[in-house]
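Input for the complex:
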Amino acid sequence: MGEVLLEQLINGLMMGSVYVLVALGMVLIYGVMHVVNFAHGVLFTLGGYLGYFFYHRVFDSYPLAIVLAVLSLAVIGVLLERGVFRPLTGNLRNQVIASLGLILFLENLVVALWGPNALQWKVATTEHWVQLGELRFSLHHLGIIVVTLLLVTALGLFLKYTRFGTAIRATSQSQEAAIVVGIPVRTVQWSSFALGCMLAGVGGALVGPLFLVFPQMGDVPLIKGLAGILLGGMGSVPGAVIGGMILGVTESVSTLFLPTDYRDSIAFMMMVAILLLRPQGLFGQRMRGED
Amino acid sequence: MKTSWKLLAAALAGSLCLPLSAQTPAAAAKVQIGVVTALTGPMAAPGVFQMNGFKLAAEELNAAGGITVGGRKYQVELKVYDTRANPSEGASAMQRLATVDKVPVVLGELSSGVAAAIAPIAQDYALPLILTVPTGPNLTEQSNPFLFRVNANNLQLNQALADFVSKQGWSPISFIAWNNDAGRGGVTGIKELMPAATKDAYVGYFNVGEVDFASHVSNIRNTKSQAVMLFMDEEPGSLAIKQIRDAGLKVQLVGTLAMGSDRFLKRLDAQRLEGMVQYNAFPPNADQPRIKSFSQRYKAKFGEEAHGFAAQSYDGLMVAVAAMQAAGTVSNGKAIRDALAKIDHTGVIGRIKFDGKGQASPAVYVTQWCANGSRRILYPDSAKAGCGAG
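Predicted:
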């Protein structure tokens, strides 16, 4: 039993890492722009498809494909912020609706460009294994956990110790105060949006070779990422990380006790429980007047 | 006098021309045959096989000059609707075929869920529906006189598989299946047919579109299963098998119809698949003239190995045409239905004769993947063949 538990723990950390990447992107965007970006799932999907594209059409190198996918997502992020979200500044509701509309647009764009069938993306790391006693994991599996830890650490250091990172934190605390102290709020907004998109893109490019690259691949990570940030607290970066990980591990371990078809419902049950019992999440703060 | 001879000669020449011009048709008459299948969405991959079977049959019929029904010649045209394996889209497609396109017969559907939604519509509009892939056994238990099924259903498939598996003595056995009619039906059905000595270990269900099988893998490991049965199609099948083998589990794999094709082999590799058995409606390399011929023609047209879904669909269209010819009509659904009920047709998959419930009884085989990526036939004993002839 202990062995199987360890197996599910590691699986949980891996899926949790994917949720963390999505959640981090969403929390950055939410913190700075107060918009829950429902299009985050399709951005994740785009990361997968662009990674696949760069790997097969341009260079045969997986790390390079990820980097190029991430850079493309940054560009797409900037374009989306300027073209879709900035014109709607001040109208939060329409920004949310716009993000819902983006789901339809981007998902069908993917189908139009790459077809409706799932694509198989074979990379070297999925063909090498690490043996842990009787358990065996592909290098890719463990690589996702490691890459996420590195990114989370880098992001944490960036937000805490760099000028721009501090500007982002300031803007998410209070936009008006940030303007008053001379922070370029516009710049912070589009760069946070781009950063969020880049994180989603990394997620997609990492998960693509593990399973399949298909148009709906971002749908589930979106919901799980959302559950993660609800659990961790809507504006909190450490909350997003811990929330995502808790969700991933809980889901995986639960399948040893509950029928596996209930696995997805864990995330939903968690969301309902949090909203009922502690709406600000684990690390969020109850703000007066905030909706 | 001269002019009258000229007139007579002209009249004679004119009258000789007339029968010739009456023989060249103004335009070839067409009969539209309805097709519902999944061309996009999560079932798009097997949908291609089904569509190819219909296309090949239609092309061959038209290349031979079309079909002759009731003394007239017709070109076969397929009116195709993409249902995306979605029951409501299937239902609206079926409605259109019945009321707008007014086709005489409908073929296809891929998923049992959609087939269940469109069968009552067939009955309402007296439009015969011939299924060529869905395996849900309940479909032919609804006393629907307008529903026919060319392919074997889960009960028939399970019978053959259980017969084979029980002889191997594998125990305990785990199951991973789709969380729908076909998957749940398959598991329930086969469990009933297994001998009492075979213990059930883990039964896991997953939703169509899910890609992560890690929890199932852990549970299979936990129950120390000797074999695992996978009731799913090729996309999830390739993921499940990859994840099972990558986790170091050496269980005996038992798969479905969809996991016996060359296309499936390309999704994985011979190393991961070696030893896996699956039930198969159509071993494309079997040493049977009707199978060999179909495989050659399919490969020539589509550049890949033939698959049971394509063979079943090809036969479905041929049976529909045979029924129209027997009934002498390309528009009377009821007459075509009556002809189908009596038909005795030899197709690529064997003899097609529908019983009182509209179900045919084609042969079911069990094939196994060899180390070199070819297949052998293990069941029935009469059809046993070595690697390469499966």
